[in-house]
Specification:
This protein has about 220 residues and is mainly α. The protein is built from 7 helices and 2 strands. The chain is globular.
Length: about 220
Amino acid sequence: MFWLDHENIFLNVLGYKLSYLESLGWFTGIIAVWLSARANVWSWPTGLVNVSLSFFLFYQVRLYPDMFLQIFFFVTNIMGWWRWTHPKPVEEDAKHELRISWLKARDGWIVAGTTLAGTAVLGLLAQRLHHWLPEIFTQPSASPFVDSFITVLSVVATYYMIQKKVECWLMWIAVDVVATYLYFVRDIKLYSLLYFAFCFLAAYGFFTWRREFKRYTVPDAVV
């Protein structure tokens, strides 16, 4: 389809050529994150559309770890949709959906260790993709380690978002700051602006989820 080609331009804004693909990805991404920040279950099906579009975009701009990340996101959007709508009886909130909770203290060390180790391993692999599969990856990965950091921490943040842990939004803020820079230098500036907006939406999500947690009947409960 023509709108899946990053070279097909929708609009020229002050010399920046904006493709149909990037525009659609931007729009669906904003809606999905805004719904997530409000703990609205419809964030997951909206996210399915966004990650499908982003997969094609990242392949075309040679951000391969980010491209593979979209496959993970596709699967986890389905998992998150199910998890939020089918909680165990002790995990239900007033809407009969999964209730918000906080991480345990030791989980912070797990997040940090997983992110550092995963970034190193994935970055080394991304550096070699064009050697191993030259027919598919015709050029080297543009920013293997920065891109890998975004990928790994996004995986970790998504896992904790599926579990409705408040701290997932702090992880997303770190992802969004780095992604804003990377996408800007890779000349997909609307996506850079998107992730800049995500920084504020993630902060909004953090405070919204924290406030929602305080409203529960047993505010000190940690699942």
